[in-house]
């Protein structure tokens, strides 16, 4: 059972993600939109993987508003080689968005909303976790 952090500001999306990841994936899931909490959990080694919404309306780090790409960069800067894999989740699905967001954030992978294929999400997470373990 992996420890996942879901960073999501939409209550419905957060609830669905928590249920899918816990029930289908068998993972321990923490859902938050508090950027300071995410950084604390990552610093403490309490996350095996972070699933990060890109568009975060009320997420803050030290009182300053951040989006998911910036929060992913902060995790990478702060945790270095010990940072967990980061999977971006976004509705940005135009040509070039994937490469741009991955480059800007330092995230490991990217998946588009809405996520209809829950099995594919679990498989993507498992692949990232396996890659980290290798």
Strand order of the largest sheet: 2-1-3-6-7
Describe the global form: globular
What's the CATH architecture name?
Answer: 3-Layer(aba) Sandwich
- Percent of residues in β-strands: 15-25%
Number of helices: 5
Give the helix proportion (percent range): 40-55%
Distance between the termini: 17 Å
**Uncertain residue segments:** none
| Structure summary, number of beta strands | 7
Report the biggest beta sheet as strand number plus sense, adding barrel if it closes.
5 strands, parallel
Structural class: alpha/beta
- CATH class identity: Alpha Beta
CATH topology category name = Rossmann fold
Task: Give the helices and strands as they follow along the chain.
Answer: EHEHEEEHEHEH
CATH superfamily: Response regulator
What would the average pLDDT be, to the nearest integer? 94
Write down the domain tally.
1
Q: Briefly, what is this?
A:
The chain is an alpha/beta fold and 134 residues long. 45% of the residues lie in helices and 21% in strands.
